[in-house]
Write a structure and sequence with these properties.
By secondary structure, the chain is mainly beta. The chain contains 4 helices and 16 strands.
Length: 291
C-alpha cells in the first residue's frame, strides 16, 4: 500500500488544511464494499482507477466493490480537514508565532486525511507540503527537494518512508530553529531558543562537534528535550557500597529475644540442617519428626 499526500498550509492562522491524496493498494476480492476512513472533513473529486465516482460523502467513504478490480487499484481525491488549537489531529500551537503539528495516536490519522486507519495495515508515505517560505517543515524522512511556488511560499518534497502504520506518520511546520548535532538536529520554538542559557544544547552542540563530547544529560532534561535517542556524555556517579551482613552479636535486642524464644519452643531447631541463627518472621519453626 502507498499514500501520496500533497498538503497546503495556506496561512499560519488557517483553520483548514486542503490537500490531495492518492492511495494505491492491492485487492484480493471485490465482493464487499471498500470503506475508506475519513472523519471530520470533506472529500471531493473522487476517482477510482481513473474513473470519476459520485459515491463519495463526508465521513467514512463507502465505495461499492464493483468499482474495483482484483489486484492493483488506485483512489485519488481532494479533501479538506480541520486545524485547531485542541481536539484535532492537526493541532496549532500558539506561541510568539504559530506552529502546526500532527498527533495521530491512536486512531486520528483519518481525521487529517483519507486512509485505511487500521493498525494492521502498513503503507509507505510520500509527502509534499506547500508552506510559508519562512517556516521549517519536518516529517518522518529527510527533505529531497525544495522549490519556491507563489510569492511567500515554498514547496517541500520528502523522501518515501518505510512501511508505517498510519498513526506513526507525522509532520510539523513552523518557524522552528534548528540546533545542529553530530548525526541529528533538534527543532525548537523561537521562544525556547532565545531563552536557552549558556551551556544549553544550543552552544554545547557546537562544542560537541569540535571536541567529540556531548552535553550532560541534565542539560537535555532541564530543557525538556527527549534524551532517549541522543548520545550523552557518561557522568561518573558514586555507587553506594553493599551492606555487609550484620554480626549476630550486634543484632537488636528484639531480634535476639525472638531467636531465643524460637529456640525455647523447639529445642531441636539448633541441630536441624535447615536451622540458622537468623530471626524468622512470625512463629515459624522447623518441625522435626521424632525417631
Amino acid at each position: 500500500m502507498h499514500y501520496h499526500l500533497s498538503l497546503e498550509l495556506v496561512a499560519p492562522d488557517a483553520s483548514q488544511l486542503p490537500g490531495q491524496a492518492e492511495i494505491t493498494f492491492q485487492l484480493q476480492s471485490t465482493q464487499d464494499p471498500l470503506v475508506l476512513d475519513f472523519r471530520d472533513g470533506s472529500a471531493t473529486n473522487l476517482t477510482i482507477n481513473g474513473a470519476d465516482d459520485d459515491d463519495g460523502a463526508n465521513g467514512h467513504l463507502i465505495i461499492p466493490g464493483h468499482n474495483f478490480t482484483t489486484g492493483r487499484n488506485r483512489i485519488a481525491l481532494d479533501f479538506v480537514s480541520g486545524i485547531a488549537t485542541s481536539g484535532r489531529a492537526i493541532t496549532r500551537y500558539l506561541d510568539r508565532d504559530q506552529y502546526i503539528y500532527s498527533l495521530f495516536v491512536p486512531m486520528d490519522a483519518s481525521r487529517a486525511f483519507p486512509c485505511f486507519d487500521q493498525p494492521d495495515l502498513k503503507a509507505r508515505f510520500d509527502l509534499d507540503i506547500t508552506a510559508p517560505d519562512n517556516w521549517t517543515v519536518v516529517s518522518n524522512t529527510r527533505i529531497e527537494s525544495t522549490a519556491p511556488t507563489k510569492p511567500g511560499f515554498r514547496h517541500t518534497d520528502f523522501a518515501e518512508t518505510a512501511p508505517l502504520r498510519t498513526f506513526l506518520f507525522a509532520l510539523a511546520a513552523g518557524p522552528f530553529r534548528a540546533i545542529p548535532g553530530e548525526g541529528f538536529r533538534l527543532f525548537v520554538r523561537q521562544s525556547k531558543f532565545d531563552r536557552a542559557p549558556p551551556g544549553s544544547p544550543r552552544g554545547s552542540a557546537h562544542r560537541a562537534r569540535a571536541c567529540g563530547t556531548w552535553p550532560s544529560t541534565s542539560i537535555f532534561r532541564r530543557h525538556g528535550t527527549c534524551r532517549r535517542h541522543l548520545p550523552a556524555r557518561r557522568i561518573p556517579v558514586p555507587i553506594r557500597p553493599h551492606r555487609r551482613r550484620q554480626d549476630p552479636a550486634r543484632r537488636p535486642a528484639a531480634a535476639r529475644n525472638l531467636v531465643a524464644w524460637c529456640s525455647s519452643r523447639n529445642p531441636s531447631r539448633q541441630s536441624h540442617p535447615c536451622s540458622s541463627n537468623r530471626p524468622r518472621r512470625g512463629r515459624r519453626s522447623c518441625k522435626v519428626e521424632s525417631e
